[in-house]
Amino acid sequence: MRNLRKLAGTCQRLWLHFWMRLAGVRHCRRIATRFALLFGPVYYGRQQLAEMNRWGFISPKATLHGWVRLGSHVFIDDRVLLYQEDEGPVVLGDRVRVQSDVHVQTAQGGSVTIGADSRLQRGCQVEAFLAPIRIGSRVGLAPRCALYSFDHSFKPGAPYSVQPLQTKGGITIEDDVWLGHGAIVLSGVRIGKGAVVGAGSVVTRDVPAGAVVAGAPARVIKIPAALARARTAITSAGVSAAPFLSVCASSFLEVLLPLN
Length: 260
Fold this sequence. Notes:
The protein is of the alpha/beta class. The protein contains five helices and 24 strands. It has helices at residues 2-22, 29-38, 225-236, 241-246, 250-256; strands at residues 57-58, 63-65, 68-70, 75-76, 81-84, 90-92, 97-98, 103-107, 112-114, 119-120, 125-129, 133-135, 140-141, 146-148, 151-152, 165-166, 171-173, 178-179, 184-185, 190-191, 196-197, 202-203, 212-214, 219-222. The strands form four sheets. A nine-stranded mixed sheet has the order 1-4-7-10-13-18-21-23-24. Strands 2-5-8-11-14-19-22 form a seven-stranded parallel sheet, with no helix packed on it. The protein is globular, with a radius of gyration of 22 Å.
């Protein structure tokens, strides 16, 4: 029995390697991937298939439309939609993992760039209209996160369906950021390197590097150690907070104001 299991495992590996190698050939990708999946792993086990050729793994059930640029060993799961209109491309870096039911869309001059080794889990939505969305390297988006670089205007006397889109600017998520389940990031926001956004949060303003934020709207609940030490030193020295805050950078204000 043990020998039969070893033989079955060897046959499966040979099968997967053959068809995934063939999936790197331009006109054979979808059909070769279908054959690989006949005896291949399921669910998260599929991610290993992306390592078997530089083109990675693109599910036959995924839809890629327009100007979409993929790095090497990218994983794109079932029912993923990468949809590009107008000028702005959708760019995925090396080893990006996109789980099932993720929608990434650009239009009206927006663009989406996702850095190497970042992961978008099930059901995330990344909608870049009017302004770009830039996601750094090693960023993790938990299921159901949503990023919108636009909003609808609310001018009186006009129905919602004809209101023009508006934006406060693009969204930038720096390296090593983690967004918890269902977090929403709105236009004009920059999230600093290594920050953590709690589940269900609505981020409407910049987040300092290394900070932990939560709530709707999101507020800082934990600050980086260096900023905490600076604030403690100022308080212990008896320095008035108002003059100090007036000369601080905007990211520093985002840390201090919620704590006052």
